[in-house]
């Protein structure tokens, strides 16, 4: 196995414990990897404002953040945008029109601002999980303000499965639609996923994918694990994620990220 020069880490269910914290052990371990010259990057479907606190918690300096599942690569401290791919406003508008007709919950992400039409149980739950604050726009939400980094729809899993199928049938080839959790349906630009994201990130830092360790737990981590030279799944990961991994580490609540980095990098 080539020496690992970059580590890309999912947030929810991977770096973060179930209570949303990052352990001191994990912080120390990732700082030790950084001190060895390894690039450590958070790779998440979240936007900058909700990923930044965890980057600051790791204390890794101006490290890269792979945001919106690879649609945006931005540095933590200087906020330098290294790559960005968006959903055109016109396409997002068509999707918002469909959501309005169908009565779907929908969220947009534009210029690091989270917007929703209504203050309902789904947006309040999202704010609780991500420590974010949504801009509640009422009917103005359905006049999309600009190009979107992504859109997200929340609901019961079976309902979201049906929404996914309808979006893909109505707008073939426009969006990459997948689950980051059973009640989170992510709608991203076509061609954007964490696998392409870590390839781009590696190119920016002169690192090949065979020199990348990637750690994740959910469906939206699969592309990243398949692209990485050394894919690691958490013990709490879905079975399909474990099947794509070269190694299964401890769970997120048992410092699985630290355990894998200590074993294979330090």
TrEMBL record:
One GO cellular component this record assigns the protein to is: cytosol
- Write out the GO MF terms: magnesium ion binding; phosphatase activity
Q: Which PROSITE patterns match?
A: COF_2
Q: Which UniProt keywords apply?
A: Hydrolase
Matching CDD domains: HAD_Pase
Q: Which Pfam families match?
A: Hydrolase_3 (PF08282)
Coiled coil, from the record: none
Q: What is this protein called?
A: Cof-type HAD-IIB family hydrolase
What species was this sequence derived from? Megasphaera elsdenii
């Amino acid at each position: 196995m080539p020496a690992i020069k970059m580590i890309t880490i999912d947030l929810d269910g991977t770096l973060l414990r179930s209570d949303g914290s990052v352990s001191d052990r994990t912080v120390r371990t990732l700082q030790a990897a950084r001190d060895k010259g390894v690039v450590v990057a958070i790779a998440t479907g979240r936007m900058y404002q909700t990923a930044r606190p965890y980057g600051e918690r790791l204390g890794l300096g101006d490290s890269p953040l792979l945001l919106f599942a690879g649609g945006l690569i931005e540095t933590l401290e200087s906020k330098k945008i290294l790559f960005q791919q968006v959903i055109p406003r016109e396409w997002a508008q068509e999707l918002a029109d469909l959501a309005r007709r169908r009565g779907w919950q929908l969220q947009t992400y534009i210029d690091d601002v989270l917007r929703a039409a209504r203050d309902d149980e789904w947006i309040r739950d999202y704010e609780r999980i991500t420590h974010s604050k949504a801009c509640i726009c009422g009917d103005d939400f359905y006049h999309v303000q600009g190009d979107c980094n992504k859109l997200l729809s929340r609901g019961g899993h079976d309902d979201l499965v049906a929404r996914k199928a309808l979006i893909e049938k109505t707008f073939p080839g426009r969006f990459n639609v997948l689950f980051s959790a059973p009640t989170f349906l992510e709608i991203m630009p076509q061609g954007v996923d964490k696998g392409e994201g870590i390839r781009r990130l590696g190119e920016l830092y002169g690192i090949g994918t065979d020199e990348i360790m990637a750690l994740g737990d959910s469906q939206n981590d699969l592309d990243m694990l398949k692209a990485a030279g050394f894919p690691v799944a958490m013990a709490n990961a879905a079975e399909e994620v474990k099947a794509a991994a070269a190694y299964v580490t401890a769970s997120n609540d048992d410092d699985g990220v630290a355990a894998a980095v200590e074993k294979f990098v330090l």
